[in-house]
Amino acid sequence: MAAGASRVFVSHLAGVAVFDPVGDQVGRVRDVVALLGGRRRLPSVLGLVVEVVSRRRVFLPMTRVTGVESGQVITTGVLNMRRFEQRPNEHLVLGELLDRRVELVDGDDRGEEVTVLDVGLARLPARREWEIDRLFVRRGRKGGGLRKRRGETFTVDWDAVTGFALEEAEQGTANLLATFEQLRPADLANVLHHLSVKRRAEVAAALHDERLADVLEELPDDDQVEILGTLQDERAAVVLESMDPDDAADLLGELPEDEKDRLLDLMQPQEAAPVRRLLSYEEGTAGGMMTTEPIVLRPDASVAEALARVRQEDLPAPLAAQVYVCRPPDETPTGKYLGVVHFQRLLREPPFTLLGQLVDTDLRPLPPGTALPALAGYLAAYNIVSAPVVDEGRHLLGAVTVDDVLDHLLPDDWREEAAAEGLPGLARDGATAPPGAPGTAAAAGARSADGNTTDGEAVRDG
After folding, report:
1. Longest alpha-carbon distance in the chain
2. What is the pLDDT of residue 146?
3. pTM of the full structure
4. Can you tell me whether residue 324 is helix, strand or coil?
5. CA distance 273 to 124
6. CA separation (Å) from 15 to 305, 353, 429?
7. Rounded to whole angstroms, how far apart are CA atoms 353 and 375?
């Protein structure tokens, strides 16, 4: 994308930062909204889907886009903070058009099947309006002469193909996933959440098991259940094994009893065991919320060993705040629980020091039946982010982290409510500011009934 570009391919826009005129970032591009059927010969580009606060998606009309520079989109700084809702006649270019199979309609190639790899957007001269005019495609199964090999890629005009209006039974996902390859699981989960049910199932089927497990952990319960239901039982069991036991237990707890039992039986016994234990505890208690995989070390382990475990990249920060010292066996439920050693204490001691010499025995462990209010008060009273859970025999069962407690204390839509109030401190990638700051005004560009974007007509409400 050159500065002031008049044409850009949509894959180059995915994840690009959106800035207001003074250089403050207001979000990131997650998709492009287009109107395929209308009065124009070429499809109109209505606007961008921009992710701003706590993964909230809003609509940015193209009339508010003042420039598509190298690796960034510049706006007038005015955004409508209402949640984006797709209208029946609209299409998401990334989510719906990539990987579509269509047919060429011109010349010797007429009737040949091609797959859409990318979509070109062009800005109309001397205007802020954009349209789709090019497609980057790959030859498919049909057609192709001696000099036209399957797999060849080339660019065609939009008018040179047909078939976008037809529903495709099994649409590919390779190019859509390549576009979002670098997204964190939480961000990819947000992409899936906004796709159609059919498209969501296709993408889930294409993700490898561990990636799908990470994404499922970030999705709402309804989406988790829906996606799990599209998988073969054997694969669903493998994905559940790849999830954190507490997340897998939460998901299985949403399923009917017969389905839950069937999937547990298909899981490897050693993977199913901690999940079964978690399901045995009452919801809203320490046992029901805990993770069964805290850092557990023996008293003869050294500070150096403990720091090596804490440094693991995929370890959540609350679990890295302290290590739990127990007699063998080391996996939950462990041998006798001795106490904790906090991360800060580890940093102050020589690497060769044994953990048995540093154990904090003052932190009272919790029984698994501890109710949510008492658990929240416990974390607040001790100023800690993780608490040990032990049984009557003082065997360590797991640990409850502050993020799990907050998830149960706050209403389901707390992030949406905070975003609607314009509360600071919830920005992702510097995406928002307090009310009245540049880039967060509630006024917005609008679009008329035929999809053309205007600056003074009926305001788009999505």
Report:
1. 82
2. 44
3. 0.61
4. strand
5. 61
6. 39, 46, 11
7. 32
